[in-house]
Amino acid sequence: MNIETKCIHLETEQNDDGQPVCREDCNHYGSISFPIYQTATYAHPGVGKSTGFDYSRLQNPTREQLEKIVCQLEGGTDAFALSTGMAAITLLMELFKPGDHLIVDSDLYGGTIRLFDNVSSKNGIQFTRANCSSDDVESLIRPATKAIYIETPTNPMMNVTDIAAMAKIARAHNILLIVDNTFMSPYFQNPLVLGADVVIHSGTKFLAGHNDTLAGFIVTSRPELQEKLRFLIKTTGSGLAPFDSWLVLRGIKTLGIRMEKAQANAKKISSWLKTQKAVTKVIYPGLEEHPGHKIMQRQSRGFGSMVTFRLNSTEKALSVLEKVQLIKYAESLGGVETLITYPTTQTHADVPEELRLKNGITPETLRLSVGIENVDDLIADLEKALSC
Q1: pTM for this structure?
Q2: What's the CA gap between 127 and 103, in Å, rounded?
Q3: Which of 89, 234, 291, 348 is positioned for an S-S bond with 343, CB 3.0–4.6 A?
Q4: Does residue 17 have a pLDDT over 70?
Q5: pLDDT reported for residue 50
């Protein structure tokens, strides 16, 4: 099936006789919307007999359906739905032990940096930061290195890393490549297909798509990691609740049309921003002058809908945040509504100032998550805010 269809239906498998077998549990009284199994526990017919579910901390039918859909979209062997994107990264870090070393991109989501600096480091995991889109990452590998962790494009500076090239380095040294794919979603980019071992998503964003729930995902193509992660999710109790699983399932059904519309809007807005006197820089991978444009053409099916831009003064940046009306000044991204974010005090407030500035996150920098509204209305709102 094509990816738009995979957002709605699970593919069929074949039995030993070559006949199609539906992967979906069709015994739901004909319900088109997958039911919400709002239960904590499950009755058993007898000792040693099970319906396939025991306790919802271990697994729940609604969560399992969601995991199968996300796994299918990313081309993995298993997926894990967690309570938030940060819960997903936190669980993933449990794969590592004190003394292990990770190479991580310097321009990551602020919450990820906060976790690595204040929790993972406390637990004995060592980190080396690098600009993985341009630095010689291979030279940073040492005997204790267990993984390379990247976002591409990065949040918020939109740096693009060649996933296939990074995967080649990781394989040569027998280490993991972990890719946060939140900005692109599986609709536009599939890191596992390009050689990555683990994909992370904040499901709150494009997958759910409506700013109404929190979720996180880990997807892997490695059977040995699959087994470890399944043990960890049942042990830590961080799995996604049934109703939230259903909300994300519902959101994913429209992932394709939302991503296409939001991307079309982002392309027009980024081109328009380039013409504005108060705007000194526009960073969007869909622009031909973006240094990662050609890499994105090779490894992705699109450029996404995240746009970062810089204004000519801090005062102008703050003024825009106060003057926008249709566009909401709010943290988060990936919903149907267009949001504008101030990384300095919101998403990256806990990142040390020296690192923020080194990455290019200045007080004049704004991040735009473009939604699916009429693009002319969005531009009119920005134009009015910039003119004040």
Answers
A1: 0.94
A2: 6
A3: 348
A4: no
A5: 87
